[in-house]
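== Folding the chain ==

***
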Amino acid sequence: MKTKILVIEDDNSISELICMNLEAAGYEACPIMDGKEAEVLLRSGKAEAALALVDVMLPGKDGFALMEDLQEAEIPVIYLTAKVDVISRVHGLKAGAEDYIVKPFEVLELLVRIEKVLERTGRGREILMVKDVAIYLKEHKVTKRGEVIALKPMEYELLVMLAQSKNIAFSREDLLNRLWGTDYVGETRTVDVHIGQLRKKLDFYDTIRTIPKTGYRLEDLE
């Protein structure tokens, strides 16, 4: 069963962009365009979502006012808003939001923050599936058709990062910074070597795609 995320956002283009990327990354996205509509759903007890992405400036009922309903439904919140002032940010976090992201934002950053909040709140995905490969996050174990595949620590971390953001392109520099750290002094060739090992060990030659002049993308469009 896919992890369900509410996208409470009244800007249709932003909502579609978020939902498209959530679905591509393996989540179930539930778009809601109005604060009152969100309130009705939350109070019905049928929301059953692991997380809500909430715009602050909504018609009907604003995002801050929805916090009480979201807390009653026990749904963690990440605010997405154009309000950049410190007072609004502090207000959102003090009200109980797990995170506060200012628009415009990078989709990749949003996906990473979503994963972090889900993990922190105990709602993270325990198993990631990529075709016939299963990644058991708690056990740090990877199997292919039921057979355990031995991966080195950084190979495993690289695979998890790609699998958590399916169909999203990463630059080599981004992968280096996120996995090896900004202080790493080696070359981007290190990423290429680890990608090569993952392709070989998992038979992911057609699954981890090379994106010319960019980096890599794990494709799983099922």
About this structure: The chain has eight helices and twelve strands.
